[in-house]
Amino acid sequence: MLLNRIVFFAYLASQTLLSFEMSILIKNILLDQQILDIYIEGNSIKKIGKNITNAADKIIDGKNKAAIPGMVNGHTHAAMTLMRGYADDMHLMPWLEQKIWPLESKLTEEDVYWGTKLACLEMIKTGTSLFFDMYHHFPASLKAIEEMGLRAVLTSACFDFDQPQMAEDYKQTVIKQMKLMQGHSNRIQYALGPHAIYTVSTDLIKWVNDFSKDNGLRIQTHLSETQSEVDNSIQKYGKRPAEYLDSIGFLTSNVSLAHCIHLSDDDIKRLADNGCQVIHNPASNMKLASGNKFRFSDLKNAGVPICIGTDGTASGNNLDMFEAMKLASLNGKVAWEDPTIWNANETFEAATEIAETLTGFKTGKIKEGYLADISLVNLNVPEMVPNFNLISNLVYSANGNVVDTLICDGKLLMENRKVEEEETILFNANKTAYNVVSRLKEA
Amino acid sequence: MLLNRIVFFAYLASQTLLSFEMSILIKNILLDQQILDIYIEGNSIKKIGKNITNAADKIIDGKNKAAIPGMVNGHTHAAMTLMRGYADDMHLMPWLEQKIWPLESKLTEEDVYWGTKLACLEMIKTGTSLFFDMYHHFPASLKAIEEMGLRAVLTSACFDFDQPQMAEDYKQTVIKQMKLMQGHSNRIQYALGPHAIYTVSTDLIKWVNDFSKDNGLRIQTHLSETQSEVDNSIQKYGKRPAEYLDSIGFLTSNVSLAHCIHLSDDDIKRLADNGCQVIHNPASNMKLASGNKFRFSDLKNAGVPICIGTDGTASGNNLDMFEAMKLASLNGKVAWEDPTIWNANETFEAATEIAETLTGFKTGKIKEGYLADISLVNLNVPEMVPNFNLISNLVYSANGNVVDTLICDGKLLMENRKVEEEETILFNANKTAYNVVSRLKEA
User: What is the pTM of this model?
Assistant: First the structure.
């Protein structure tokens, strides 16, 4: 264990060292409809222009490629990759109660480690450099994300089901987790993840709220995912979910809310007035039939920042943000009978530029001074030809496989679609998933 | 021109010869939840079993791969790849009248040739071996598809806008096209494609109907794509579109109908009673906001065969049938508020097994005696791990990039994701698309 720790800190130190030393020069790449060079030093974009001549440790030829910001996946449960395809085509409650929760109860820290590694691998291979995670066994996720090199807001999932002892345990856990974050890279931000108003007591939500304010932590929670959540809230609290959270002072600009499929005008006003962000998860909401009327235009007009997420792969099945963009846009257009909404540019922004507002990381744009989180997209594939409109092709035609190279925090995590350790991760994650199911069957 | 013809027939002869001589043995591949060998001779599947020892010209190692039928794309306009990303986020009529139709008016036979080549390349790279095409400049499409090696039902698009001369021209064109089909491979089937009831006169529809019966040709047309099409039909004919077509004896089991978003109970009964097939095009219907209530369950219960299509890339943006499956299923679930419909297996069947009913080609299944139209899917990628349920992973997680190898008509069209001529096609199609736009601007 001690040896593990020493090796791990040595690894961290080497990573930190590398991140300051490494420089990358990307030559002649399509960026903002021009052919430009991008010079990266340490973890940020130092210079963008024509004919940059700075010496660099690594030179990348940008021919037939475009540079775009790494995507932000606004909401996922990374380790649920282990449950991909385990249960589909079911109604929400039997799906949760008969399939997902029993399996989750068998997950160990080691399982979550491999599930998160698989998720990170999938995100790297589909051009996502930043994600908002919410899951159990925090130390395992932390280790996996640290090793994989991605940027993340890592929320510690929280449930107490109105049981005071569970609430107390969570509070102690948070203190421990905060300590565990010390010494970790700046790529990973700790946050709190009270699951939802129907799984977390009012007392614990208030504690999370106070603790996050005292410690400057972000919060993410699920809100108004289904109509029955709204109905139950009205029955229990006499208030809709957003009104209830607002009444206990929970809604602030540090809070992002996943789903928000069933919002009233009053709900939208509360989210806007308090500066909350909203994450739309089209694959999950569609597959579980939670609802298709995500109020994109009303939220946008009210000034609520909108991001896109994949949700966990147990419901959305993959972590490909390109697919999530297309689903968000197409589902929005048809649900509201208006092909002009969720246009290509605003859809792309909800998967890239929104990153800074949602996470505080200075990323989501390719600009001097921003963090070097960049995807290089292969333009020489059928789905990107012709290239009349790069953003249209990315949103409506491409999938994550068009990403050839991913740079996160100034480091090359994938080049020519090759990721270190890929075979090992696939092998171990697959084995782990089957082991979890075996344990459940034996129990 | 004569030289061209000689070269072309020499090419055809060589292809025909090859197709009879070539044999392929796929060893140890995942098929129907077993590890099996598949032996292909000429253009069909000769043997499936364990430890097949037949000598073969080509042996493929199936390790970490699964064999699935090549997909059938039930409805597309292949050459519209040239318009990918040219106009998005618009209402249907201004999109057609201001953007698509003016550009189409500038297309030459050479343009359609390169557009169709690009479409075929994209289909090969995403595991589609058979498609129903409907477009102008038939000889160009024929040449392109013949060269690319795909299987197709090639319908000759037909419009007359109630102008007798246009109708007469079309009839003459059909005679010529029938002659052009002589000497072409059995992979390509000629069919008729009256565009829609609002662009083709009753007289011409009747002629198409008679001609197809006399010559044993299939027909594909657009039906009930938008509510306004239905409203206009009622206004013009006093009948809904399906009732109108039924009243003139048009609906038979040789007829497949694209879209069918706006169907009444009576419409469904007419399609079922006459044995028509229906092709659902979720990307296009969603993006153009044509409607999301495709009546999957009602059509299925009535016994109407259902297929999935991508429509042209001007509206659907890509030709990836894996994506089309996910869109069909997810949109269906959420639109009807039922996560159990369009389950993974029935969605997969609507993209594979349906092929035989829709086209008459003995394909869509991997069985002895069936045509050798087979995709080999790479299981060693994040989106296919874990592999609890192959069909779920294919429908809900994968995209067309999981296809590693495509065999059509017993020939290898792609191996390890490499397709012959790929660079040339991408270069020429891209150049062609820009040339068309230039011509439009000059006009």
Answer: 0.95
